[in-house]
Automatic annotation (TrEMBL):
<feature type="transmembrane region" description="Helical">
    <location>
        <begin position="61"/>
        <end position="81"/>
    </location>
</feature>
<feature type="transmembrane region" description="Helical">
    <location>
        <begin position="213"/>
        <end position="231"/>
    </location>
</feature>
<protein>
    <submittedName>
        <fullName>MFS transporter, DHA2 family, multidrug resistance protein</fullName>
    </submittedName>
</protein>
<keyword id="KW-1003">Cell membrane</keyword>
<keyword id="KW-0472">Membrane</keyword>
<keyword id="KW-1133">Transmembrane helix</keyword>
<dbReference type="InterPro" id="IPR020846">
    <property type="entry name" value="MFS_dom"/>
</dbReference>
<feature type="transmembrane region" description="Helical">
    <location>
        <begin position="278"/>
        <end position="303"/>
    </location>
</feature>
<feature type="transmembrane region" description="Helical">
    <location>
        <begin position="155"/>
        <end position="175"/>
    </location>
</feature>
<feature type="transmembrane region" description="Helical">
    <location>
        <begin position="118"/>
        <end position="143"/>
    </location>
</feature>
<feature type="transmembrane region" description="Helical">
    <location>
        <begin position="237"/>
        <end position="257"/>
    </location>
</feature>
<dbReference type="GO" id="GO:0005886">
    <property type="term" value="C:plasma membrane"/>
</dbReference>
<dbReference type="InterPro" id="IPR036259">
    <property type="entry name" value="MFS_trans_sf"/>
</dbReference>
<feature type="transmembrane region" description="Helical">
    <location>
        <begin position="181"/>
        <end position="201"/>
    </location>
</feature>
<dbReference type="GO" id="GO:0022857">
    <property type="term" value="F:transmembrane transporter activity"/>
</dbReference>
<dbReference type="Pfam" id="PF07690">
    <property type="entry name" value="MFS_1"/>
</dbReference>
<keyword id="KW-0812">Transmembrane</keyword>
Length: 463
């Protein structure tokens, strides 16, 4: 028997090599709605925190849990839900995620107190995790093999643009409505994605191993403590608190690794991490999203404080990055069908690093054009990286481990972003005056490391 889990067919016919064109378009539309909503709600609530805190009569510090609990729920449950997708089928997990996310969004809109909103956000985060944990694996069933790069490009486009435009979209909604509409808008979109998905999303092969609840519990606690530690470090918690969280993180990761040591399809995919191509894809992803996290948190401070731009100007100056990602992601996806993901990702990340360095080295009074073209260069590099990296991830995992690979795609992204945000806080602790500049230098360094890791995949393929 193979060392990997054997597969059994689902009750529904499984496409041999992707869906027909019309069905494929509908399936991607359903998937894109779910992925877009999950990505938007990672950041969209940030803008509304002051209004939420005021209306719910809570403190700004307590209201931060509205953000934190969503991220915690996502990171903690990504790998268990991805593993569940391998066992019961990605389609079922994805539809569950769409339904839970939609109902939880309604709960957020109807929340009457901070605890009720936090609970709804927790459930919303689990729903988003179900969608994000298996969406990349689902692309394998939707697209034929020779078009997978296009599928990854579309996925990368949706994630990147949703993350980039989230704050702007939130501001637009809040300019014409109150904060519950930030969540209520998800309800019709989510229901449309759910019912369309029921009709068009394909069934996928299923593994015959069982789901281990204790392993899932260890995973949830380990990743929750890890993200809590990042958040507390960013908010300058005491060394005692950080030490306790670090000890708990190490303990539960050790328990997790011990529990799944003999499992043929471990939830934390150490079997895949032994593959150089997969491990380098993880390193590339974590470092790249740490660079993005550093840049996206630091740049508004850099534009506003260091360069003296207004809040409105700052919002517009962030736009070229998102626009160029939207242009480049589909192009990179098509190229990844023909060229090495390691080379494409490495080139894109070198461009991202160059753009970040160019931003730091600007004159003290740059024009809007000087800033915009540099932001555009960053967007070109970031957009050029994503689809090839997804292909590197999924191409280095066997079909029966697609769920775990997909889960690691999302996990590495969120861990990278959390790392970047925490490092921005540290940079401002070192220097309140130059913290944004230090953070941008750190972002450029992470981009350089990510570029080297991506180019390293060229050697991994040869070996």
């Amino acid at each position: 028997m193979s060392t990997h889990a054997t597969l059994k067919a689902d009750a529904v016919d499984i496409p041999a090599d992707g869906l027909p064109q019309n069905a494929r378009r509908l399936a991607i539309f359903s998937l894109a709605i779910g992925v877009g909503m999950a990505s938007l709600d990672t950041a969209i609530a940030n803008v509304a925190l002051p209004a939420i805190a005021d209306q719910l009569h809570t403190t700004p510090a307590a209201s931060v849990w509205i953000i934190n609990v969503y991220q915690l729920a996502m990171v903690a449950t990504l790998l268990p839900l991805a593993a569940l997708g391998e066992i019961i089928g990605y389609r079922r997990v994805l539809l569950f995620g769409l339904l839970l996310f939609t109902l939880a969004s309604l709960g957020c809109a109807l929340a009457w107190s901070l605890p009720s909103l936090v609970i709804a956000r927790l459930l919303q985060g689990i729903g988003a995790s179900a969608v994000m944990g298996v969406n990349t694996a689902m692309l394998r069933a939707i697209y034929p093999k020779h078009m997978l790069g296009r599928g990854y490009g579309t996925n990368a486009l949706v994630v990147a643009v949703a993350f980039a435009v989230g704050p702007t979209l939130a501001s637009v909604i809040l300019s014409v409505a109150n904060w519950p509409w930030l969540f209520a808008i998800n309800v019709p979109l989510g229901m449309a994605a759910f019912f369309l998905g029921r009709k068009v999303l394909p069934a996928t092969p299923r593994a015959n191993h069982t789901f281990d609840g204790l392993t899932a519990l260890y995973n949830v606690v380990a990743f929750s403590l890890l993200i809590l530690m990042f958040g507390d470090a960013a908010h300058q918690a005491s060394l005692k608190t950080l030490a306790i969280e670090l000890a708990g993180t190490v303990l539960f990761f050790a328990l997790l690794l011990r529990r799944q040591a003999d499992h043929k399809a471990p939830m934390l995919p150490v079997d895949l991490l032994r593959r150089p191509m997969f491990a380098l894809s993880v390193v590339t992803s974590v470092c790249t999203f740490a660079a993005q996290g550093l840049a996206f948190v630091a740049l508004p401070f850099y534009f506003f404080t260091t360069l003296g731009r207004s809040a409105v100007e700052t919002g517009f100056l962030m736009t070229p990055w998102a626009v160029m990602v939207a242009i480049m992601a589909p192009i990179a996806g098509r190229l990844s069908d023909h060229y090495s993901p390691g080379a494409l990702g490495g080139i894109g990340l070198a461009i991202l690093g160059a753009g970040l360095v160019a931003l730091v080295l600007m004159s003290d009074a740059p024009s809007t054009f000087d800033i915009s073209w540099r932001m555009g260069v960053c967007g070109v590099g970031f957009g050029f990286f994503q689809a090839p990296n997804l292909k590197g991830f999924m191409g280095s995992a066997p079909p029966d481990r697609g769920g775990s690979a997909s889960g690691m795609v999302a996990t590495s992204r969120l861990i990278g972003q959390a790392t970047g945000a925490a490092l921005v806080a540290y940079c401002f602790m070192v220097s309140s005056e130059h913290g944004a500049t230090f953070a941008l230098w750190a972002a450029a360094l992470f981009a350089a490391v990510a570029s080297l890791a991506s180019f390293g995949r060229l050697v991994a393929v040869k070996n």
